[in-house]
Amino acid sequence: MADRQPPFASSLFSFVADDLAPHRNPVTCILVGLDRPLVVCAQAERIEGDIVVIRPGVEHWVEIDGRAKVLYFDGLEFPLTAALAARVPREVAALAMDALASSSGAQKELRARFSRGRERCPAAVERAINAIVHDPMTRMDQGELARRLRLGRTQAMRAFKAATGMTFRGFKRWTALCAATRQIAEGQLVRTAAMDAGFADTAHLTRTFRTAFGTTPTLATADRR
Questions:
Q1: Does CATH place domain 10-114 in 3.30.300?
Q2: CA-CA distance, 175 to 9, in Å (whole number)?
Q3: Is 46 helix (H, G, I), strand (E, B) or coil?
Q4: pTM
Q5: Which three-class secondary structure string do you get for 73-131?
Q6: Alpha helices, H only, the chain
Q7: Which residues contact 143 (CB under 8 A, 6 or more apart)?
Q8: Domain residue spans in the chain?
Q9: Domain spanning 123-220, CATH architecture
Q10: How many Cβ atoms are within 10 Å of 126's Cβ, its own excluded?
Q11: Res 3 pLDDT > 50
């Protein structure tokens, strides 16, 4: 029987843009140019390809010039050795394209392929992640997390980061961003989506969004084809 997968989400967005401004994606992502190859750039690097996987936490920008799709994998370690980004390995390219075409099965399989060797998420951490993912407005603070994990606060923070690859605060912010984006993509007003996800206002959501994605919530949900 396959190991139970941690309760992480795979978030798929499509958009139209000439480029993505400098940003640091919070989690590992796969990006595909739908009209032409794209270029991932940093100060001393340029990686061009039809479909690339990008390391989280490294400032970069992306030249797109057309439509693109991006698939974010929270809770997933960057699966390659590249410092910034790399073309998706040939052996999983077809699977990645299916995942970017909205196949939930392909997304699950791709996550499993990239997750090999990662330790299983502890059950108590998994329950805390579930609570955050399913309700971004959950007012879970560090003390509440420590109580749920039955650990001291410092130990709880370390256990959470070990399981998710993100700080507790960063994971909650990421989950809120994805929740707001999905609402906007479904036709909700940006202001309403921002408030529902726990942001102070539209400007707060937009600033946070640009820092993480290099674009605005509206552009990130402009084209769902």
A1: no
A2: 9
A3: strand
A4: 0.87
A5: ECCCCCCCCCCCEEECCHHHHHHHHHHHCCCHHHHHHHHHHHCCCCCCCCHHHHHHHHH
A6: 90-100, 104-114, 123-134, 142-149, 153-164, 168-185, 190-196, 202-213, 217-220
A7: 153
A8: 10-114, 123-220
A9: Orthogonal Bundle (1.10)
A10: 17
A11: no
